[in-house]
Design brief:
This protein is 88% helix and 0% strand. The termini are far apart. The longest helix has 74 residues. With 110 residues, the chain is mainly α.
Length: 110
């Protein structure tokens, strides 16, 4: 039981009921005065609190994964667009270089 109480203590708990149950159980264990009813009540409080906490964390993780997937898709699309723009620049530079050569050749002939 002490191991569970110590583990729960590592979390920042804002829920008043859970906080009170945690403090009470830590006190009872320190005084070696925890009864079976105390332990059962504590275990129920921990289960209730952490089940909700776990569900909330999983929902948040799914949301983050979805957002990351969207960001990755945008990144992929922008990279593809950038590659197209680079190829266009390279292509137009080639055309402009040929045009410049022809203009220079005409100037020499003319």
């Amino acid at each position: 039981m002490q191991k569970l109480v110590s583990r729960v203590c590592e979390f920042y708990i804002t829920d008043k009921g859970m906080k009170k149950a945690q403090e009470r159980m830590a006190d009872l264990l320190a005084r070696n005065a925890a009864t079976e009813a105390d332990v059962a009540a504590y275990l129920q409080a921990v289960g209730r609190y952490f089940s909700g906490f776990h569900s909330e964390a999983r929902t948040h993780l799914r949301s983050l994964d979805k957002r990351l997937e969207q960001v990755n898709q945008v990144h992929f699309n922008l990279t593809a667009e950038r590659n197209v723009a680079v190829r266009r620049i390279e292509g137009t530079q080639g055309v402009l270089a040929e045009l410049s050569e022809l203009d220079n050749a005409e100037a020499r002939i003319g």
